[in-house]
Each structure stands twice: as C-alpha cells, then as structure tokens.
Amino acid sequence: DDDDDIPQLSSHTLAALQEFYLEQQQREGMKTSQGFNQYSIGSIEEDWQLSQFWYSDETASCLAKEAVLAAGKGGRIACISAPSVYQKLKEQDGEDFSVCILEYDRRFSVYGEEFIFYDYNHPLDLPKNLLPHSFDIVIADPPYLSEECLQKTAETIKYLTKGKILLCTGAVMEEQAAKHLGVKMCKFIPKHSRNLANEFRCYVNYASGLD
C-alpha cells in the first residue's frame, strides 16, 4: 500500500507541534494588541544561530543611561549589534538624543529609517548618510568572541565615533579590545536574560559611570 511510505507524526509530536503554533499565534496576537511596546526587550526573540543573547532589563537600562550621559544633550548614539540597548533607549521618549541601530538581523528593519543593515565582514560598507565621526558615542557588542570579529567591528566603531566607545564583549577579549580600540575594562558586569557560559564585561575609553 502506497500509504505506508507516508511518514506519520506520533500523537505526542503532533500535540507538541500544535501547542507550538498556538503559542506562536498568541505571541503574534499580543504584538498586534493595544499597549504592546515594540521596543521592549524580547519583542523580537533571540536567534541563537545569529549568536544573539539579549541583555537583562537592568543591564540594558544601565547601558542606555550611560550612553545618554556620554552623548550629552542633543547627542547622537549608534548601537552596533546591541539591539537591547537600542530598544531601551527608544523607550525613553522625549529625551534629547538620536539613535540608530546597525544590525545584521533584518527583523529589526521594523524600526524604520533608524535601522541600518550591517555585516561586520564588510565593516565600512555603510550608507552615505552615515558620515565619519558623526556619533558622540558608539556602543558595540560584536556577535562572536574572535579577534577577527572584534577587529572588523572596531573599524566600523572608529569610523563612526567622534571619540567615545562603549564595548561589550567577553572578558577573554580584554587584550584584543585594548589593542584594537584602546578601551579598558569597567567594574560594571553586564548580565543577560539567559546565563552565558562566557564571562561578559564592558569596556570604555573615557571616564564613565560604569566604574
């Protein structure tokens, strides 16, 4: 019988699949319902295949506050591969600063003109309207703990910043961070919404409130 060749899902797998789709529908429904904040952390889910790990709410708030203070009144802030800081900055409506997000994940294009597609493999492949040294502070969280990734991201950072840099990466990258960006480790220890195996730290090249 030809029907024997058709793979059948077990009742357990089928039930799990239906539950998954139901949860997905509920999440989508939540997103379109009134009062949903498109800038809240987690509104776009982590994609581990893209090495995405969102900061905890407390860490994102702390880094956003630091960025606003460092940028100054009317300051410009660039977030490179750090969407949770961007989202937290956007929650601060009415604050006197502007911000953009450079990100490989095109799901963040929902944020309109402030989204800039960014691939660290092509560090200077940027839109013409992103002028050199036009941001008061650049916050970056390179997606991979490798010197190649840090070095290429550093090219973008140095191109965009007027001077101030806030880097978030693994503690193991301390030497390379100093070498490529002249930044020093802060006392503040960033946390993620899910625990990471690698110790994570912040680095700056200016007198910050993170010490």
TrEMBL record:
GO terms for cellular component: cytoplasm. One of its GO terms (biological process) is methylation. InterPro entries: DNA_methylase_N6_adenine_CS, Efm5/EEF1AKMT1, Mlase_EEF1AKMT1/ZCCHC4, SAM-dependent_MTases_sf. It holds the Pfam family N6-adenineMlase. It catalyses: L-lysyl-[protein] + 3 S-adenosyl-L-methionine = N(6),N(6),N(6)-trimethyl-L-lysyl-[protein] + 3 S-adenosyl-L-homocysteine + 3 H(+). GO terms for molecular function: nucleic acid binding; protein-lysine N-methyltransferase activity. It is found in: Cytoplasm. Keywords: Cytoplasm, Methyltransferase, Transferase. Coiled coil: none annotated. This is EFMT1 methyltransferase.
